[in-house]
Design brief:
The protein contains 1 helix and 6 strands; from the N terminus they run E-E-E-E-E-E-H. It has about 100 residues and is mainly β. It has one domain: SH3 type barrels (Roll), CATH 2.30.30.
Length: about 100
């Protein structure tokens, strides 16, 4: 039996919304209303050369921390390591080895 570690503040998560959108974000926890709080939400988009890129979920927002209404979240889970590494490089501009 595989035992999973619980999520902790700062982990990279994948969030599936009722709209069908899939987000990458930094997990912060839940607020008092039990809504999911994430930081620097992003999504995956096709680039002009046919590859995939990570782009901000809300392009014009200056806010880094976002509260997602629990009624719009289907599920969330830890992100695959390779994608999490790319996400962290994208949102921090730090090259991870």
């Amino acid at each position: 039996m595989l035992i999973e570690k619980p999520l902790k503040n700062g982990d990279t998560v994948t969030v599936k919304l009722t709209s069908g959108e899939e987000l990458l974000a930094t997990y912060k926890g839940f607020n008092d209303e039990k809504n999911l709080v994430v930081e620097k939400p992003a999504t995956i988009s096709a680039t002009p050369d046919g590859k995939m890129g990570i782009i901000p979920w809300m392009m014009t927002s200056t806010k880094e921390e976002v509260v997602l209404n629990s009624n719009t979240v289907v599920t969330f889970a830890p992100t695959v390591d390779e994608i999490a590494k790319s996400y962290k490089q994208s949102v921090t501009n730090i090259k991870l080895v």
